Recover the amino acids of this structure.
């Protein structure tokens, strides 16, 4: 029997509450970006190949995975008034894409002791390294030559110091301390040999030069040292490189154009952030496009050598936005504005530390975001005074054997009640003296009171040392940034590898570096706790929905 009209209308009134006329509007697929849709127009022929500046999917890359320089440029920041020194094998300062931005007064050749750091000629163009790095930072824009620098209106200085039979402490120290009131940022794409068996770092004069730089450079705001984390791949650990693992440097690792790690990337807990280098695929346009020797251009620059100058360029944009930034401000900004984006590592997962900051053992706090950094830099207030606390020390000898981990603990109040109390962490150092029958099989982990685990030393399969070991070596981590250091720190030392090994740990001293106040950390903690509470609420709601669904299914099955 059919219902009457009245019945039908009652049915409609019960179930239709409101009627609206719908307006049509646009929606666009996320991911792919056409370079013409981004309001950056450059006449330089390689600009569209510079995927690390604006990634639209060139060279089989992942769209959107870039340094976000377009946003910084559109805000008006291009590196004006900032000088970056490339400490390397020289710069072709006659190159038409570099000449207009070359700072001759701030340049010097410490290999030949003259003011002309031009690369020494070789048939294989071996000394092209510095010129390629310089182009990444300061290549001029809109001149129809090569590509564009990250900070294309910055000044670049050449410090030639690598091209000689051997390095000396005085050459390194002189280079790092050259004209610190003129040079703002020093970019270094070099370090100890990346052979997986070297443990080395700066000597006495260079250490003093670095300390003077961060304390006295730039009128007391501090020289900014950018360091490539190293190209030793999975065979090495950048915490064995005393330059990259120094608190005074910003250690930069690299990702390739699809977000994976490069095969030569080293991992360690001292890496702060990442930029980009060449892709794994044999696409000829997957490398870093930049200037080359004798007026040429290249698409084949690569390695973490390419990553450090990109970071120096981003920091130059931030310094233009706020010239008062200190060397520590730049590190804080790197931690706060770097993004996970689409970076992924097959070995190390992304994790959150005790205050909710997301980090990765290889990528640090993520890829630098130039737009985010300049926006935060504009409003940034200088971080509070830094303090150092010796949190505790274990000097007794402890044996280490394969199959058994040595576990030691230090309980600390972080110098609370004293002038040097550290409440909010920046850098943490575990100063360790240890010897082993095979140093390369050693594995050292440290866990903070807030539960953050740092891998201080990974296995290095090529390191056969059985005599030298580590002598008061400062293993450094940035992964506990912002945490409260008070409580129990745990050090775990063991062996990895097929053959049984033995060793002796003679010292572990815990060094804490940080501040007594950090308002932004408190805000991060509140936001993180709010997100956790929300996620737990959503989990409970999901569990409730699932329970209701199960109950309904059970009821229906019984009725059937």
């Amino acid at each position: 029997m059919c219902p009457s009209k009245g019945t039908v209308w009652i049915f409609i009134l019960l179930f239709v509450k409101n009627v609206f006329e719908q307006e049509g509007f646009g929606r666009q697929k996320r991911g792919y970006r056409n370079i013409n849709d981004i309001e950056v127009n450059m006449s330089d022929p390689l600009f569209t190949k510079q995927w690390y500046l604006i990634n639209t999917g060139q060279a089989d890359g992942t769209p959107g995975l870039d340094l976000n320089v377009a946003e910084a440029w559109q805000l008006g920041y291009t590196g004006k008034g900032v000088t970056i020194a490339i400490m390397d094998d020289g710069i072709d300062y006659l190159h038409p894409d570099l000449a207009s931005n070359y700072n001759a007064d701030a340049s010097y050749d410490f290999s030949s002791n003259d003011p002309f750091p031009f690369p020494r000629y070789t048939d294989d163009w071996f000394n092209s390294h510095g010129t390629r790095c310089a182009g990444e930072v300061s290549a001029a824009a809109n001149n129809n030559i090569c590509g564009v620098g990250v900070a294309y209106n910055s000044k670049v200085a050449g410090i030639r110091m690598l091209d000689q039979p051997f390095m000396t402490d005085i050459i390194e120290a002189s280079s790092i301390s050259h004209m610190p009131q003129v040079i703002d940022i020093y970019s270094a794409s070099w370090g100890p040999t990346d052979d997986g068996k070297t443990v080395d770092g700066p000597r006495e004069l260079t250490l003093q030069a670095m300390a003077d730089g961060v304390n006295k450079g730039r009128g007391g705001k501090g020289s900014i040292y950018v360091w490539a984390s190293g190209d030793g791949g999975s065979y090495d650990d950048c915490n064995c490189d005393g330059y990259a693992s120094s608190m005074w440097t910003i250690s930069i690792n690299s990702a390739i154009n699809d977000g994976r790690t490069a095969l030569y990337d080293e991992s360690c807990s001292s890496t702060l952030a990442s930029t980009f280098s060449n892709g794994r695929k044999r696409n000829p346009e997957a490398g870093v496009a930049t200037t080359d020797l004798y007026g040429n251009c290249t698409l084949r620059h690569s390695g973490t050598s390419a990553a450090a100058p990109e970071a120096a360029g981003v920091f130059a944009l931030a310094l233009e936005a706020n010239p008062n930034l200190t060397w520590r401000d730049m590190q804080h900004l790197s931690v706060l504005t770097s993004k996970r984006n689409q970076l992924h590592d097959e070995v190390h997962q992304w994790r959150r530390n005790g205050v909710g900051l997301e980090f990765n053992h290889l990528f640090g706090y993520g890829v630098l975001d130039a737009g985010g950094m300049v926006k935060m830099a504009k409003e940034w207030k200088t971080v509070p005074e830094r303090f150092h606390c010796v949190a505790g020390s274990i000097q007794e000898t402890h044996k280490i054997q394969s199959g058994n981990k040595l576990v030691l603990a230090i309980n600390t109040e972080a110098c609370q009640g004293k002038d040097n109390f550290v409440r909010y962490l920046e850098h943490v150092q575990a100063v360790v003296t240890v010897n082993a029958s095979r140093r390369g099989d050693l594995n050292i982990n440290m866990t903070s009171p807030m539960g953050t685990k740092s891998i201080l030393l990974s296995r290095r399969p090529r390191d056969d040392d059985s005599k030298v070991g580590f002598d008061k070596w400062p293993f450094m981590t940035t992964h506990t940034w912002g945490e409260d250091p008070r409580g129990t720190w745990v050090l775990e030392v063991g062996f990895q590898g097929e053959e049984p090994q033995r060793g002796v740990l003679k010292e572990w001293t815990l060094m804490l570096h940080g501040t007594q106040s950090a308002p932004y950390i408190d805000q991060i903690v509140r936001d993180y706790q709010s997100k956790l509470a929300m996620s737990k609420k959503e989990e409970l709601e999901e569990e409730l929905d699932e329970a209701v669904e199960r109950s309904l299914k059970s009821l229906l099955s019984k009725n059937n």
In short: The longest helix spans residues 519-559. The chain has nine helices and 20 strands.
